[in-house]
Amino acid sequence: MATPLTTPHPVSTARLQSPLLRRAALALLPIACAVFVWAMPGSARAATAPTVVEAVQLPAWVEHSGQRRPAQPGQTLGARDSAITAEGARMLLRLPDRSMVKLGEKTQFLIEEMAQSRSGKVDPGTLKSTLRLVTGIFRYATDYSSKALGVRRDLSLKINTATVGVRGTDFWSMTDDAHDAVCLFEGKVEVLSSAQGSIPLDKPGAFWLTFTGKPATPPGQATPDQLAKFIAQAELTPGAGIALEGGRWRAVAALLSSGVEAAALRERLRTAGYPADILVKRGRYEVRINDLATEQDATSVLERLQQATDLTADGARVALASS
Q1: What local confidence, expressed as pLDDT, does residue 322 receive?
Q2: N or C terminus of the chain with fewer C-beta within 10 Å?
Q3: Rounded to whole angstroms, how far apart are CA atoms 60 and 272?
Q4: Contact (CB, 8 A) for 123 and 45
Q5: How far apart are CA 84 and CA 109, in angstroms?
Q6: pTM value > 0.90
């Protein structure tokens, strides 16, 4: 998680009489200057807010600097970070401009670049984003509030055989070893294909599909059944294990008397994509997954854990956060 930039506190003249403090102050001077330049209203550069995990249908992961940890609501991603979903999982992300990204199951998504620039204090700025769908299902939709405020976008999505150029719209895409596809719901996108060049999609339902190793075909129009299928592939499924900030239910994987056993179970759960933690209750250790949206979401998670051989133990149950 990025640490907010702050200007160091002034150092008094008396305290600078110490040679050690004088050297420390001089060492901090370049950092203070850099912070000042970054924050100047007229600067072309602006601090970029992170992308946030708004909701996740477990199990899923976020990968940062090669370290994979379970995804959970409120988690942040920056440039070079990845989001990964398991079979039956989904994830909802909010980009810095409030645009929405939805990921379907068995998806790997990478933020290659995310940078914001402004030309002046009243300029709402331009968000430059380069995203990559390594495999799986993706949907992007512009947020109305950012459009109303005049935020500009320079966004592209890379898939296996093409790049999708976006300026503000609602579209779906998928990629795997067999084929790539893009479908427009609203607005306009441009598909830049290595085999076909520039392919504009500018009508609702416009659909481009290419199969690996087969001749290219022109874009067409998705049927209502196809559109419904595309939308469903990236939607969170109520009651299927959704976690979000403020979720009041939890799935308790075990209530153990050994702290060592509890810590080992927590790590197995986290490796499997569940953001487990431990609460000590009257000398025993409750291993649990918090922030689940409803009782059915908590039940769904617990049932999934119980299908594995080593992710639950005695005391497994579903409970309200206050109990």
Answers
A1: 75
A2: C
A3: 8
A4: no
A5: 6
A6: no
Residue 36, both tokens: 């000042």
The answer to whether the beta carbons of residues 249 and 318 sit under 8 Å apart is yes
Q: Is 291 left (phi over 0), alpha (psi -120 to 50) or beta?
A: left
pLDDT digits (tens, 9 = 90+) for 137-150: 999 998 776 666 66
As a whole number, the mean pLDDT across the chain is: 85
What is the Cα–Cα distance from 59 to 91, expressed in whole angstroms?
A: 10
- Strands 126-141, 152-158: pairing kind: parallel
Name the nearest CA neighbour of 93 among 142, 49, 53, 138. Answer: 53
Residue 239: what residue type? Answer: G
Residue 38: CB atoms within 10 A of its CB come to 12
The string of DSSP codes covering 244-306 is: ETT--EEEEEEEES-HHHHHHHHHHHHHTT--EEEEEETTEEEEEEEEESSHHHHHHHHHHHH
Q: DSSP labels for 188-255?
A: -EEEEETTTEEEEE-STTEEEEEETTS-----EE--HHHHHHHHHHHS--TTSSEEETT--EEEEEEE
Answer for the pair 90, 236: CB distance below 8 angstroms, yes or no.
yes
